[in-house]
């Protein structure tokens, strides 16, 4: 995570469908607005137990963290 990223909002979510295991994840939002004319980049780290996704805004060749998702098996 970037040193200057400030966490605005964190949600813990669990999904369960009948007969399936629970899928739980944490969503962390670092910026409040979502401009429609901005490019975004997705980066992933997929492991055996944990998977992490980061969504970054492309702003003048800088990539501030916009949203992160953290899944646990």
Please describe what this structure looks like.
- This protein is mainly β.
- It has one domain.
- The chain contains no helices and 5 strands.
- A 5-stranded antiparallel β-sheet has the order 1-2-5-4-3, with no helix packed on it.
- A hairpin with a 6-residue loop joins strand 4 and strand 5.
- The two termini are 22 Å apart.
- The mean pLDDT is 80.
Terminal-residue CA separation:
22 Å
Radius of gyration: 14 Å
* Biggest sheet statistics: 5 strands, antiparallel
Number of helices: 0
| Mean pLDDT over the full residue set | 80
Structural class of the secondary structure composition?
mainly beta
- N-to-C SSE string, H for helix and E for strand: EEEEE
Ordered list of secondary-structure elements with their pairings:
Blueprint: E1 9-15, E2 23-29, E3 39-46, E4 50-58, E5 65-72
Antiparallel strand pairs: 1-2, 2-5, 3-4, 4-5
Using brief descriptors, characterize the structure shown:
single chain, 73 residues, mainly beta, five-stranded antiparallel sheet, 0% helix, elongated
In a few lines, what is going on in this structure?
The chain has 73 residues and is mostly beta strands.
């Amino acid at each position: 995570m970037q040193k200057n990223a400030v966490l605005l909002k964190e949600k813990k979510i669990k999904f369960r469908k009948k007969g399936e295991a629970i899928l739980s994840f944490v969503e962390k939002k670092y910026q409040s607005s979502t401009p429609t004319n901005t490019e975004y980049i997705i980066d992933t780290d997929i492991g055996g137990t944990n998977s992490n996704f980061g969504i970054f805004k492309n702003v003048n060749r800088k990539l501030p963290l916009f949203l992160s998702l953290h899944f646990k098996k």
